[in-house]
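Limitations
The C-alpha cells in this dataset are predictions for the assembled complex, not deposited experimental models. Users should treat interface geometry with appropriate caution, especially where small molecules or nucleic acid strands are included. An illustrative entry is reproduced here so readers can see what is and is not provided.
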Amino acid sequence: MNGAISVDSISYAYGEIKAVNGISFEVARGEILGFLGPNGAGKSTTIKMLVGQLVPQAGSIRILGMPVHGHSSEVNARIGVSFEEKNLYLQMTAEENLKFFASLFGIKRLDVRALLERVDLAGRGKDRVASYSKGMRQRLMIARALINDPDVLFLDEPTDGLDPVSSRAIRAIIEERAHAGTAVLLTTHDMNEADRLSDRVAFINEGVFHAIDTPENLKLKHGTRSATVRIRVDGEIVEKRVPLDQESVGDGLKGAVNDGEVVTIHTEEATLEDIFVSMTGRGLV
Amino acid sequence: MSISRIFTVFRKDIAVGPRSPIILFALVMPLLLTLVLHLVFGGLLTSRPRLAIVDEGASEVTVLAQQLPGIETTILHSTVDLKDRVEANEFDGGLVLPADFDRAVRDGEKPLLRLFIGGESYAVSRLVLAVTAIDLIREVEGKSPPVNVELVDLGRADPIPLSTRFVPVIAMYAFMIAGLFVPASSIVEERERRTVVAVLTSPATIGEFLIAKATLGFVLTVSMTAITLALNDALGPAYGAMFGVIVITAVFWTMLGLVIGLASKNSEVLFAIVKASGALFMAPVIFYIFPDWPDWIARIFPTYWAIDPLWRVMADGARFVDVAGQLAIVVAMSLALVPAIAALSRKMQKQLAAG
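Predicted assembly:
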C-alpha cells in the first residue's frame, strides 16, 4: 500500500457493538474520498482511528507511510483535522486561536490575515469566538485545519450549518487543496456535496463498506436512468417516462416523441442517496 | 517531549487566565483573606507603630525613640512634611520637638509637645505612641516612674499571636485554589469544550498538555503563596528554606490538581470532589488555630505533611534540614500520584474518543 492514507482491515468495537468491522481503503495524494453513511454507521469511529484518537483493535493504518500509533506527533504534524464538534477556544479571538495552534505546529510565521480571508473572516479576526455564529465557527475550524499546510486533510461534515455561499467557498478550498496534492477524507450527509467534490465515495453502514467507487461508476453500476418527455396532446400536457437502461431505448423515445408535440425532454439519473438506500436498505439520516 | 509546545499551552492559559473567573478567584482569594485577617487583627505589612519626629534641637527623646525595638522611627526635617505624611497615613503619629525641649523639660517649664496622629492609624498604635512619648519625656526629665509595673502573661506561654496562627489557613487556600483547583478546572474546561481533542490532534502529546497545566498551577501557587506570606510578614527568618518548602509543596498540590482534573468528567463532578475533599484537605490547619488540640489527629491527614514544614519555617524559624524529613514525605506522596495521573490520562483519552 502506498496511498497517503492506507487502511488495512481495521476494526473497532465498543463493548459488544462493532462500530467498524474490517474495512480497508486507500486515499491517494490529491484525491478526495467522501465517506457516506447514516449516524452510527462507523464514519466517526473510522476518523478517530485515522487521527490517532482510537487504537484499532485489529488491522493497521498508515498515514504518509507512517503507522499512526506510535508516531502520533510526526503524523499529526502533517495532517489537518476539522471536527464536527466546534472545539475552538471561545474566550480567545480567531487570530489568537490560529496563532496558538500554529505555535503547537511549530510554525513561526503565519499569515493569519490571509488564512482568515480564505474563509471570509478577515474582518472578525480580533473578535472573540464566543461571539461567532455557528457558520463562522465552522469556517474558523476549516482555517485551523489548514494552518500547517497539511498533506492529509480530515473533514467531518465541513459544510454543516453553512449558508450556500459559504458552503461553496469551503468546497472551493477543499478542491484547491486536492489540486495541490493533499489527500482529503471527508464525511458528509450532503449527497450533492459528496457527488460534486469526491473523486470516490465510500458507502459505510453498520461498520462495513457496501461500496467504494467513483460517483459516476456507482450510478452506472447500481442506478437506473430515465428520460422524461413532456408532450402536448389535444392541448393537455402529458408526461411519459422512458427507461434508458434497456436495449429498446430508441423505440421508446421515438414512441414518446411521436405521440404529440414535444414540450420538454429531461434525463434523470439515480442520486447517490438512491443508490445508498438500494444497497443498504436504509436512508442516510 | 517539546518544551516549546509545553510553553505554548502554558502561555495560552496565562493569557486566557484574566478572562477566567477561576484564575481570578485564585489570585484574589488569598489576598482577600489576608485583608480580612488584617482588618480583624490589624496591621498590613508592618505590625509596629510608625513614628515620625521633627527635632528642631538635638533632643535626647529622638535618640531614645530610635533605640526602641517596638516602634519604627523616622526622622523628618520639616513640620509641614511631617503633617502631610501623617495625614497620608505614611506614619501613625508624628512628634515635633522644639529647640531647647530637653532643657525646658528638665527646668520644669512644661513646654508644649505636639503629637500628630493619623486619622487612619489603628487605635492600638495611637495608644502605644502616646504612652511611649510620655515615657521618653519622663526619662529625659530624669525622673523614675511613680509605680513599678509587673507584666503578667495570661493564657498560653506560647508567644505566637492568633493572627499568625491564621496564616496556615490562608496559605492552604492559596495551595488549594492555585495549586489544585486551577489546573483541575483548566483540564475539565478543555475536556468539556473538547478543545483538548484539537490540541491532541496537533503534534502536542497528552504528557505535554498535562505538564503545561501543572506548570500553570505551580507558578500560580508559588507566587500566590509567597505573596500571601510576605503580606502577612510570615516568610520566616530563613527565606531559602521557605522557598524550598513552597516549591516542594506546590509540586504536590499541582499533581493532586492533575489527578482531580483528570478524574472529573465535568465541572459538576469537579465541584463535588472539591467540596467533598475540601474539608479533609483543610482539616490540619484548624490545629494551628487551636494549638491545645492533640497534634496526632492532625498528622492523620496527608495535607498536614504539606503544611507543617511551612509552619515550622514560618513560626519556629526551622531550617531546611529541620523539615527535610517532612518534605521527603511530601515528595513521596507526589511520586505516588504519578501512576494515578498516567492511568487517569489514558482513561480520559478513551472517554474523549468515545464521546
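Some entries come with short summary sentences. For this one: Residues 224-269 of chain A form one domain.
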